[in-house]
C-alpha cells in the first residue's frame, strides 16, 4: 500500500525564484527565509518520497477570471512550466502520475466534490518554486506530481471548511491507493499578504501564528473564519492559506510539527515553511 510520509508547506512568492536565479540566498534580505530549508532537504533525503500531491492556486496560466473552477485536479503524464511574465527561467517539465490522479478524482466525486479534471495543465510558480526550494540543483525532479488547484482569486471562493473537506477526501484516496509509492503532501502560498488596494503591503503576524499553531493539532480551528474574515485578517492574497488547509486535510487525522520557519517580509509577504509528519 502507498504511504503518506508527511506534509511540506511553504510560500511561493515569485521573487523567491528571482533570488534563487541571482544566487541571493545568503544575502541579508533573503537569508532568514532560506535558512528554513536545510531541515527540509534533510527530511526529504531521509524520507525519499516518490509522489508529491500539491495543493496550490493558479495565477492566470491555466484559468482566468472568465473561467475559474473552484477545484481542479491535474491528470496528465507531464506538466510543462511556462513563463507568467516574471522573467524567471523556465523549469524542466514535471512528470505526472495520471493513474493516481484519476483515483483521487474518483474519490472526490464519490464524496460529492466536483473538481475540474485537467488532462492538460501548465505549472506556474505556485508549484515550480516550492519544488525548486525542496530540491535545489537536481538533474531531474525526484517526485511525480498530482497537482490540485484551489480558486483563491475569483470570488466566491470556497470556504476553509470546504477546502479541509477536499483535503480529507484526498486523504481517503491516498490511503486506499494500492501502489507502493511514498507520498508527500505539499501546500503552497501565503501567508498573510495583500498586493493591491489601500491595504497593499498588509501583513498580520498574529493571524499567521494562529494558523501555524493550529495547523498540525487542530486544523478545524482554521475553518472558523469566513472567507470575508480571512480577507480581513490575512489580506486579499493571504487567502492562499486555503491551500495549506486542504493539504493538512490530505495528511490525515493526526499530525505533529517537526519544523517551522517564519519570516517577514519577503516581497510584501509573510513567509513560512513547515514540516509535518503523521502522528
Give an overview in words.
This protein is α/β, with parallel strands linked by helices. The protein has one domain: 3-Layer(aba) Sandwich (Protocatechuate 4,5-dioxygenase, Chain B), CATH 3.40.830. It has helices at residues 14-22, 31-34, 38-47, 98-110, 125-134, 160-175, 205-215, 227-234, 241-251, and strands spanning 3-10, 51-56, 71-74, 78-81, 94-95, 116-118, 122-123, 144-150, 182-188, 255-266, 269-278. The protein has an eight-stranded mixed sheet with strand order 6-3-8-2-9-1-11-10, with helices on both faces. β10 and β11 (269-278) form a beta hairpin. α4 crosses α6 and α6 (160-175) packs parallel to α9 (241-251). The longest helix has 16 residues, at 160-175. The two termini are 18 Å apart.
Helix and strand arrangement:
Elements lengths: L2 E8 L3 H9 L8 H4 L3 H10 L3 E6 L14 E4 L3 E4 L12 E2 L2 H13 L5 E3 L3 E2 L1 H10 L9 E7 L9 H16 L6 E7 L16 H11 L11 H8 L6 H11 L3 E12 L2 E10 L1
Parallel strand pairs: 1-9, 2-8, 2-9, 3-6, 4-7
Antiparallel strand pairs: 1-11, 3-8, 4-5, 10-11
Helix pairs in contact: 4-6, 6-9
Question: How many structural domains does the protein architecture include?
Answer: 1
Could you name the CATH topology? Answer: Protocatechuate 4,5-dioxygenase, Chain B
Q: Structural class, judged by helices and strands? A: alpha/beta
Tell me which oligomeric state these chains represent. single chain
Rounded radius of gyration (Å): 17 Å
Query: Alpha-carbon distance between the termini?
Result: 18 Å
**For the residues shown, what is the average pLDDT?**
95
CATH class: Alpha Beta
Largest sheet: 8 strands, mixed
- Sheet with most strands: strand arrangement: 6-3-8-2-9-1-11-10
Give the H and E element order. EHHHEEEEHEEHEHEHHHEE
Beta percentage is 15-25%
CATH architecture: 3-Layer(aba) Sandwich
CATH superfamily: LigB-like
Outline the low-pLDDT stretches: none
